Amino acid sequence: MRHRLPRRAPTLSIVAGIVLALVAGVGAVRAVWSDALSASAEDPSRVERVGLGDRADRAADPRAQRCGGAALSAPRELRGIWITTVENIDWPSRPGLPAEQIKAEYLGWLDLAVQRNLNAVFVHVRPSGDALWPSQYAPWSEWITGVRGQGPGFDLMQWMIDETHKRNLEFHAWFNPYRGSQPAPSGSGPDINALAPDHPLRKHPEWAIVYPSVGTTGSRLHFNPGIPEARKFVEDSMLEAVQKYDVDGVHFDDFFYQYPVGKQDYPDEAAYRQYGNGMSKADWRRDNVNKLVQEMSQRIKQLKPWVKFGISPFGIWRNSSTDPAGSPTRGLQSYDDIYADTRLWVRAQWLDYIVPQLYWNIGFDVADYAKLVPWWVDVVKTTRVQLYIGQADYRVGQSGPFSDPGELDRELALNRTYPQVTGSVHFSAKNVRADALGSVSKYAAHFYSTPAFPPVMKWLPGNAPAAPALKSAADGDNVRLSWTGKGVSSAVYRVEGTTARLVATRRGGDGDYTGPKGTYCVTELDRSWNESPPAG
């Protein structure tokens, strides 16, 4: 993904320079934090969590639920990682591996998620007009087998989802809607004839856009967002995965129209003349993207109402110097430069969640993390859309502010001061595993020390299960629990003083758990994380 991680900075135009400055943090100056907030990162007991437990959003009032006289307490926040397949950034480690190694590497990412008490993975299943499943709309991705259009010999998507759900993690299928190829030499670049034989752009070359132009670094193929038939095909190709598989979410990142390269305009003049309908070209392009987002929102819910739909856009909608409603920033503007009206998508509630990529440090003068978080909080505040933050684990260890292993720790501490921020997604998996400078261990100890449930989305179908039937038996210095129930998953709480804290989750309504002697309770949850009364 993520803007610029696989990108190759094709020119040093003013716009591209700003983007690079934003991502690299060139010239950033760290803001001076108050003693209280700085101390809170080192002493998590001093973080004002604004009721992270209070954000439980249970089907029943959590304060009415008791376990041995103690109130139930479970964090409710989305904790995720992006697992990137394009150019084998995260997984598989290289194309053409044996099936067993492909599987072993994926299981390693799930083990990492469980170890760090995460509860969701965002897996790149449509990197560039291709698919990680046997599709009638797209060829198999070259990043799996090394051969465009050749599959691994088994249904990879089904296997991934099964293994992810076994560990009680959500599986969000991450799609790039309009990318048609990756730049050469690793991808086929702008050459249609270099695509897989069954690639849809070979069958419909009239849908293809080359941008940036041939001969420019990073040149590649795109599906033209301005052609209604192309948009419908792209939607159908993604919805095929929703229809065939038990995904928990449909997820887009920030690539709709390509980020601008120098002074090159996107070559869609013919489609604009045919379909522009009197709009300015910029408004027409935004309308094309808006239609994709709105139509996908409607079609996902018609197909499977419980599947979540979310987007992770570039972190700046517009600068306040351009629009008084914009953020106090001075960077590239998604509304103007890539035709993504991200604020509209939230205000219209086409999304279930939004994950702005806030890949900048606290105090960065061009795009200050500490100013962008409250701006996005204000955007979602009067909507039902949940706000998660895209965290820049990939930047840890770079020169400047991210050479401090505490930068992300302070950012997560800041997030906790806003009840509207209900989660984070970390880019990317390999950086979470690398734990550069001990940064991940630092923030995980402070903020991810126990399991957590994803927040409930009350507008999705839900029906809290009945409490399970629970048995317990002494086992030396331990207690052995076993239970049966009707939930999609189940949860174990242990009483600590006046609070019963979440200590484990299990997939399925039946389960077992062994822990040190004490008082325990077990609850059941449906697939939307609505929770039963406790048994115990």
Helix run count: 15
What's the β-strand tally? 18
Mean pLDDT across every amino acid position = 91
* Sheet with the most strands: spatial strand order: 3-4-5-8-9-10-11-12
Q: What structural class results from the helix and strand content?
A: alpha/beta
Q: What portion of residues belong to β-strands?
A: 15-25%
Helix content: 25-40%
Principal-axis shape:
globular
Low-confidence stretches: 2-60
Largest sheet: 8 strands, parallel, barrel
Q: What is the CA–CA distance across the termini? A: 45 Å
Polypeptide structure, described:
- The strands form four sheets. Strands 3-4-5-8-9-10-11-12 form an eight-stranded parallel barrel, surrounded by six helices.
- It is α/β, with parallel strands linked by helices and 536 residues long.
- It contains 15 helices and 18 strands.
- The radius of gyration is 23 Å and the shape is globular.
- Helix 2 packs across helix 13 and helix 7 (228-244) runs parallel beside helix 9.
- The model is unreliable at 2-60 (pLDDT under 50).
- Helix content is 28%, strand content 18%.
- The two termini are 45 Å apart.
- A hairpin with a 2-residue loop joins strand 15 (489-496) and strand 16 (499-507).
